[in-house]
Amino acid sequence: MANRAPTSAVHEARLVETFCSLASIDSPSGEEAAISAVVAQHLRDLGCTVTTDAKHNVIGRLDGAAATEPIILSAHLDTVEPGRGVRPQLDAGVIRSDGTTVLGADDKAGVAAILEALRTARASGQPMRPIEVVFTVSEEVGLMGARALDMSTLRSSTAVVLDSAGAVGTIINSAPQHDRIDATIIGKAAHAGVAPETGISAIVVASQAIAAMRLGRLDAETTANIGLISGGSAMNVVPERVTVTGETRSHDPAKVESQVRHMVTALEDAAAAAGAQADVEVSTLYRTFNISEAHPLVQSLAAAIRRTGLEPSMHATGGGSDASVFNERGIVTVNLGVGYEAIHSTDEHIAVAELRRLAQVLVALIVP
Ligand SMILES: [Zn+2]
After folding, report:
1. The domain containing residue 215 runs over which residues?
2. How far is the CA of 160 from the centre of ligand 1 (A)?
3. pLDDT per residue as tens digits for the range 191-249
4. Do 123 and 260 fall within a single domain?
5. Distance 76 CA to ligand 1 centre (A)
6. Considering the entire predicted model, what is its pTM?
7. Does residue 188 or residue 319 have the better pLDDT?
8. Which of 32, 78, 116, 348 is catalytic?
9. How far apart are the CA of 246 and the centre of ligand 1, in A?
10. What's the pLDDT at 66?
C-alpha cells in the first residue's frame, strides 16, 4: 500500500525545541498576548495568512493543493496556574517542569504538534489538504476564547481539537452537556444565644436541600455535584445568607434537564418549608455532541492514526473542550488524545515519543 504521508519525516528535535520554547512563555488564561504573537509569527513563517482578534485568538490559513475539503486543526494557548516561569526539562525521553509549575503540555503539546506537522508536510513537497489553524485563548476558564471567536470567516465544516487526555490514537467523539447551578439561600439573621427563634438559618436550609439531592454518579452517562458552599457571618449569628454552587453533566440532555429540575426543586422546597428564600440561577456551560464513527471526519482521522502504526480508539469524555464550542457552531469536531499526563498539576509531563506520534498523525491527516 502506498504511504504518501511522510510521517517519518517529523523532526523530533525541532518539535521538542518548539514545544519547550512555547512552554517557556508565560500564558496563564487572560494573558496570552505574548504567546499569541509568537505562534502568529510561526504561522506566517509557514506561509499561512494569519489574523489575530482582540482576545488574541489566532487563525492561520494555508491553501493546499490537494483536492480535498479544508479542515481546522485547533489547540489552546493558555495554561492553568502555577504556570509562570515554566522551565521544561528533558529527562529520559520525558519532558517535565522543574516541579514548581505545570508544564503546559496542556495544551502547548497540541500547538507544537500542529506547527511541526505543517513544517513536515510543506517540506515533503506533497499536495497538502487546505488547513485552517485555530489557536484559542482562555480555554481553561470556560472556553472563553473559542466562544468569543468570530467563526464566520472559517471555511472548514470539520475540525480536530488536540486537547484530550489519553494516548495518541484516542479519538473523543462524544462529550456531555454541562449545566451549572448557582443558588443563594436567604434566611433571617438573629442573635444565636438571645433570640434564635426569631431567625431562619440559611445554613440549615442549604443542608436540608443538599441532603435531599441525588448526587455523585447517577448513571453511566450522568453525574451531579455540589462543589461550593459558603455563608454565615459569625459563630453567634443565625446565618442569613448562604451561596451554593453545583453542577450536573450528562451525554443525554434530557437527563441534565431533569437533574437540574430535581436540584432546583430541592433548594426551593427546603427554603419554602423554613420560610426562607431561594434565588437559583441555572446556566448551560456547553452542550453535548456525539459524532458517529461512520462520519468522514472520524474515518479520515482513524485512517491517519493507522498510517502511523497506531490503532485508533473511540471514547466519550466527561469534560468540556473547545470541541464543544465548534460543534455548537455547526462545525463537526472531535478531540484527540495528546498523550500528556497529570495535567493541571506540577507533575504534568509528556513523553517525547507521544509528541512525535501526535505530529505524525497530523502529517498523515494533512497529506492525504
Ligand atoms: Zn487543555
Report:
1. 177-286
2. 13
3. 999 999 999 999 999 999 999 999 999 999 999 999 999 999 999 999 999 999 999 99
4. no
5. 7
6. 0.90
7. 188
8. 78
9. 22
10. 67
Whether 75 and 163 have beta carbons less than 8 Å apart is answered as: yes
Q: Band of the pLDDT at 86, cuts 50, 70, 90?
A: very high
Residues 46 and 123 in one domain: yes
CA atoms within 13 A on the CB side of 133: 35
Q: Does the pLDDT of residue 67 top 90, yes or no?
A: no
CATH number at residue 20: 3.40.630.10
Q: Is residue 1 part of a domain?
A: no
**Can you tell me the distance from the alpha carbon of 59 to that of 50, in angstroms, rounded to the nearest whole number?**
6
Of 32, 107, 116, 139, which is the active-site residue?
A: 139
Distance (angstroms) between ligand 1 centre and the Cα of 132 equals 19
- How close is the Cα of 208 to the center of ligand 1, in Å? 36
Shared domain for 233 and 134, answered yes or no, is no
Concerning whether 139 is annotated as a catalytic residue, the answer is yes
What digits encode the pLDDT tens for the residues 109-152?
Answer: 999 999 999 999 999 989 999 999 999 999 999 999 999 999 99
